[in-house]
Write a structure and sequence with these properties.
The protein has helices at residues 2-6, 24-47, 76-84, 130-142, 147-170, 177-200, 213-237, 244-254, 261-266, 276-293, 305-318, 325-332, 335-350, 362-369, 374-383, and strands at 93-95, 101-103. The chain is built from 15 helices and 2 strands. Among the domains are: 1-108, no CATH class; 127-242, Serine Threonine Protein Phosphatase 5, Tetratricopeptide repeat (Alpha Horseshoe), CATH 1.25.40.990. A hairpin with a 5-residue loop joins strand 1 and strand 2 (101-103). Strands 1-2 form a two-stranded antiparallel sheet.
């Protein structure tokens, strides 16, 4: 901003109450004025060598360090554009003096914007500072103080937290140790948001119509990868991360079916060997490994009641008091896979003509599948082609 001040380049002044219908013309004029301001600002910053000129080549060792300077939850240009285009979500509105719900810039949060060919690179004032990103995340979490609010506002937070992660990626090479810790705090919080949403929004009556379990799992996985990369960078810089062992444990459970997981774990620092979080996660992962092989007391797989009991150990581990709520939410991602394996064993063991059990009741199903109710067990049973 100092460079723009030296070149006497200043942003245009906002009209009063820009979200009101009466100010629509004034806001449209503001957008045109702000567009001209941005063009001047871009040229000024390129001349000063503060941002890249797309028409000039630069060696790798001459790469510029990019730093976001926006201190608002939503940059000015996006605020103006979205107000003009009526792209305002309910949490970004407030009631004006006439009783109308209108856009309030101070409540607006930067949305997810996918990159496109020919799109200009962002200006420093388009990317929020690290401190602002942390504060924005805290503000978003405060919006979902009850389960009902999570259901209503999940899609809003899902979009805005992705935008937070993108803003971090723009400036990952320009952070101080303190800013890296703020990034870790935010990524850990986003991880908890995604996995808790998977648990809470899967309940009957709480699933919003636009909720996608597959997309939630996808973003959870990407957030975990980003977090592991930051942890690795911190290890090289000697920065201690308070919750690192906990979240590395979540990474293990999330990737329990990945055959390359143990090879990656072998490269981790030896300081995690005595971690309760890591050891619990490995126990869950090893249990899932047995389930993958569907092994019984004999080799090859023995389809017996004893084999079913071996698989059920997975749920017994999850019930242990040493398993945290968040760890259990991560393990829940695999519940359907585990239950399908149990159904396979039930079908084969109970269909043995001579030695198999004769009675299969809802109570027995509930016991084997570890559902909350007998009705849930029967519903799961019937969804997979079985009939009583």
């Amino acid at each position: 901003m100092d460079q723009l001040e030296r070149d006497n380049i200043r942003p245009p002044k906002w009209p009063d109450n820009p979200g009101c219908i009466e100010q629509r013309k004034a806001t449209e004029r503001l957008r045109e004025a702000h567009k001209a301001y941005r063009e001047k600002a871009r040229m000024s910053l390129m001349r000063a060598g503060l941002i890249d000129d797309p028409d000039k080549r630069r060696r790798l060792n001459e790469a510029l360090t990019f730093k976001g300077i926006c201190q608002d939850m939503c940059p000015e240009w996006e605020c103006i554009t979205r107000i003009v285009e009526h792209d305002i979500k309910d949490p970004e509105k407030d009631v004006d003096e006439h009783g109308h719900a209108v856009a309030l810039p101070s409540l607006m949060v930067k949305r997810l914007a996918r990159s496109a060919a020919g799109q200009d690179a962002p200006l420093p004032m388009d990317v929020r500072s690290v401190r602002c990103l942390k504060d924005t995340f805290n503000y978003l979490i405060d919006l979902i103080y009850t389960d009902d609010q999570l259901s209503l506002r999940h899609s809003f937070l899902w979009d805005r937290t992705r935008a937070i992660r993108i803003d971090f990626s723009f400036q990952k090479y320009a952070m101080t140790p303190n800013e890296i810790k703020q990034q870790i705090y935010t990524l850990e919080g986003i991880t908890r948001f995604h996995v808790t949403s998977l648990h809470l929004l899967s309940r009957d009556g709480f699933t919003p119509p636009d909720f996608s379990e597959q997309q939630e799992v996808e973003q959870l996985g990407k957030t975990l990868i980003s977090l592991m990369e930051v942890y690795d960078d911190c290890a090289q810089q000697g920065i201690e991360c308070e919750n690192e062992a906990e979240f590395r444990g979540y990474y293990i459970v999330f990737n329990a079916f990945n055959p390359a997981l143990m090879e990656r774990i072998a490269d981790w620092d030896r300081r995690f060997e005595d971690s309760q979080h890591i050891n619990s996660a490995i126990s869950i992962k090893e249990c899932i490994k047995n389930i993958q092989r569907i092994q019984g007391p004999l080799q090859p797989g023995a389809y017996t009641q004893q084999a079913i009991d071996v698989i059920s150990i997975f749920f017994e581990i999850i019930k242990m008091p040493t398993i945290s709520y968040t760890m259990a939410c991560f393990a829940e991602i695999h519940f359907n896979t585990i239950r399908k394996a149990i159904l396979k064993l039930i079908r084969r063991s109970y269909s043995r003509p001579k030695f198999g059990p004769k009675d299969l009741t809802p109570a027995v199903l509930k016991q084997h599948l570890y559902t909350d109710t007998e009705e849930e067990a029967v519903e799961f049973f019937e969804k997979h082609g079985f009939q009583f």
